[in-house]
Every structure is written in structure tokens, then in C-alpha cells.
Design brief:
Elements (H helix, E strand, L loop, with lengths): L5 H7 L10 H10 L8 E8 L11 E5 L10 E4 L2 H10 L3 E3 L1 H8 L7 E4 L4 H5 L2 H4 L17 H10 L1 E5 L5 E8 L4 H17 L10 E8 L5 E3 L7
Parallel strand pairs: 3-4, 3-5
Antiparallel strand pairs: 1-7, 1-8, 2-6, 8-9
Length: 231
């Protein structure tokens, strides 16, 4: 068994690892047990009672976090020339088409989100082996394949994120930074959780929200009491 670091021991001494807390309390605890020298990300992990292998139980969606994610999201827009000015004005970091497709084929993925248009998805689809494993493939369901490039870029820059249940039935995503006030972390986390609740598949049986955990980079996880969030 690995030895606990001094910071980890101190973090574990500040709260009960097995106790479930309401979201406001959990956010305060996470801030209190974060010891990184950089501005750590704050993440939410939600274990769902679904079977992701079944198409009708795949939980996927988008949510606009009211307080943003606390970092500059690098956006690449792959579009035709007539849409490039619109993308640049909206704040996209990289705009183009063929030259960026070639860069990606060569292994370049220094971006967080890719937005494209339906008419060029044939070209973008060929990048599936590179983009798919990195979660960068544009998708109409997440609003990243659209003709309204300006709206898509603006929303993502303002804090819109997409999420998807993994093969283990868990949704894991960032909802802010440790430098955020605790109430802003809780507000962002609640917005995500409420969105996930609304997406409950009708075919899912039994307990939908099995567990919720809030943590920061390199911190232990703080259990969140889920029943109070099921409104």
C-alpha cells in the first residue's frame, strides 16, 4: 500500500471520508483540503444506474455552467471560408479547415473543443481515430456541429460543457477551479447534476443516481448526499 503524503494525511483529517454531505458543505470541504500550488480543477463524478452498452440508456448532454469553468477554453472551428470571419469575431482561437485537418492528422490536438458545420463533417469524420479517444469529435447533440458558429463559440467560451457517461456508468467532468468561492462551485455542480437528472432514460430501472463525489486535483473525494438534489 502506498504511503500517504503529509498533505493527504492532513486532508483526510479534516472530514469523514464515509459521510455524505450536502453540496454546499462538500464544496467548502474540497476547498479546505486542496493543497496544490496551482489552481486545481474541481470535478464531479456521478455514478448512474444505467447500462451504457444499451443505446437507450446512454446519458449524454450539455450544460451551461453559471460561473464558467475557470479556464480559457481553446476552441478550433473547422469551417468553410464564408464562416471564418464569424468564428473569429466570436472568439475562436483557431479557424480554418484543410490546414488544421492536416495538422490533426499529424498528431496536433492542442485544443479543448472543436466546432464544425454539417457540410464539412465528411472531412472531419475521417479524423475519428485521432479525435474520438480524446473526446474531441464534434457532435450535433453537444451543439458542436452547427451552422450557427457564432452562438456555439460564444456559449463554449462562456462555460458550456458537454458530458457523457463512460463504459462504467460514470459521468466525470470539471465544474470549476479551487479558487472559486464555495457557493459558485456548488452552483455549478448543482446545475450539472440537475441536467443529468432530467436526462434519466425511461428504460433505466432502480436507483438512477447511485453516488456523487466532489473532488479537486490530487484531493480525496467528498461524498455528496444525492437525495436532497432529486427535486
Amino acid at each position: 500500500m502506498a504511503r500517504l503524503t503529509k498533505n493527504m494525511k492532513e486532508a483526510l483529517s479534516k472530514f469523514d471520508l464515509e459521510k455524505e454531505h450536502n453540496l454546499d458543505e462538500a464544496a467548502k470541504i474540497v476547498k479546505d483540503i486542496t493543497f496544490t500550488k496551482f489552481d486545481a480543477s474541481v470535478d464531479v463524478s456521478v455514478r448512474l444506474g444505467v447500462d451504457p452498452r444499451k443505446a437507450d440508456q446512454m446519458v449524454r448532454g450539455t450544460v451551461a455552467l453559471p460561473n464558467g469553468v475557470g479556464k480559457d477554453v481553446k476552441v478550433l472551428v473547422l469551417c468553410t471560408p464564408d464562416k471564418q470571419a464569424e468564428a473569429e469575431e466570436a472568439g475562436a482561437d483557431f479557424v480554418g479547415l484543410d490546414e488544421y485537418i492536416e495538422k490533426i492528422k499529424g498528431g496536433w490536438t492542442d485544443i479543448d473543443v472543436i466546432i464544425t458545420m454539417p457540410s464539412v463533417m465528411g472531412k472531419v469524420g475521417a479524423l475519428g481515430r485521432v479525435l474520438g479517444p480524446r473526446g474531441l469529435m464534434p457532435n450535433p447533440k453537444s451543439g458542436t456541429v452547427t451552422m450557427d458558429i457564432k452562438k456555439a463559440v460564444t456559449e463554449i467560451k462562456a462555460g458550456k460543457i458537454d458530458f457523457k457517461v463512460d463504459k462504467f456508468g460514470i459521468i466525470h467532468t470539471t465544474v470549476g477551479r479551487a479558487s472559486f468561492d464555495a457557493d459558485k462551485i456548488a452552483e455549478n455542480a448543482n446545475e450539472l447534476i440537475q441536467t443529468i437528472i432530467k436526462l434519466k432514460p425511461t428504460s433505466a430501472k432502480g436507483t438512477y443516481m447511485k453516488s456523487i463525489c466532489l473532488s479537486s486535483t490530487m484531493s480525496p473525494g467528498v461524498k455528496v448526499e444525492s437525495k436532497s438534489l432529486m427535486v
